[in-house]
Amino acid sequence: MSARTLQYAYFPGCVAQGACRELYLSTASLAEALGIELVELKKSACCGSGTFKEDSQLLEDTVNARNIALAESLNLPLLTHCSTCQGVIGHVDERLKESQANDPDYLSQVNGFLEKEHCSPYRGTTRVTHLLWAIVGDYGLDTLASAVTRKLSGLNCAAFYGCYLLRAQDTLPHDDRFHPESMEKVFRTIGANPIYYKGRTQCCGWPLSSYATSQAFQMAGNHIQEAIEAGADCLVTPCPLCHLNLDSRQPEVEASIGRKLCLPVLHFSQLVALAVGVSPERLGLDRHVVSTRSVLEKLGF
């Protein structure tokens, strides 16, 4: 399939439409620059970010079966730029496809609730993918390389995968859940230098922050310190919740650990969009709590 014909049913999630509006802007700008069409699922609902199943697995499955069915009705794969949404919706998709084969009564129960709400049934005919995997697996790194107009030469990027993208699903396309390389491959493709450090695949601490705030800040602080000590100019994350904990709460993290950090945190889409010619102004880089000025100056903006 030509890159110019790539089309997805776009599930933006909640955080990108609120606290991380720059992610919504940068994903749209990146897709436009690469010739990828995003058909936004305006009627989709919050995936639940893993909380629905604490009360009811059936609730989580039904809500997200509806989200997937919206993409199926368009005959398109569902794409999200949120690791948490990917983990939740992707795992529901796996579970419901397993039910089709081994527990059709359960799937009938889920679809029964959808029918009551006059929603299309879940059929298991599409896939759920993250923007990172769409770039690596569908668009392709060779095609991405040809789209680069400004190599990010000299920029030392430390990936922060987080946990949901890597380990929420039973199967992982285009990567290894314990030793991932997909983001580093993208960094090299756009001219940046990948930085490796211990915490790149660990939890950012966000899930703990509502009831164990100091521990969450300590986790985030440890990761940021490790990246700085490894030589990073910035962290790059494919997860808006990780971004909130690592960027918007970085001043609180600094106060908690008693150390100044000041490490910029970029969304994955922002970094790639810079390399394919999108201006910093269009990417909302001025919306970050930790200034991104040092990154832009190093790149000559």
From TrEMBL:
Organism whose genome encodes this protein: Pannus brasiliensis CCIBt3594
Keyword Oxidoreductase attached: yes
Highest taxon above the source species: Bacteria
Swiss-Prot/TrEMBL keywords: Oxidoreductase
Full protein name: CoB--CoM heterodisulfide reductase iron-sulfur subunit B family protein
A GO MF label: oxidoreductase activity
InterPro entries found in the cross-reference section: Cys_rich_dom, HdrB/HdrD_reductase
Domain Cysteine-rich: 8-89, 158-247
Keyword Oxidoreductase: yes
Pfam families given in the database record: CCG (PF02754)
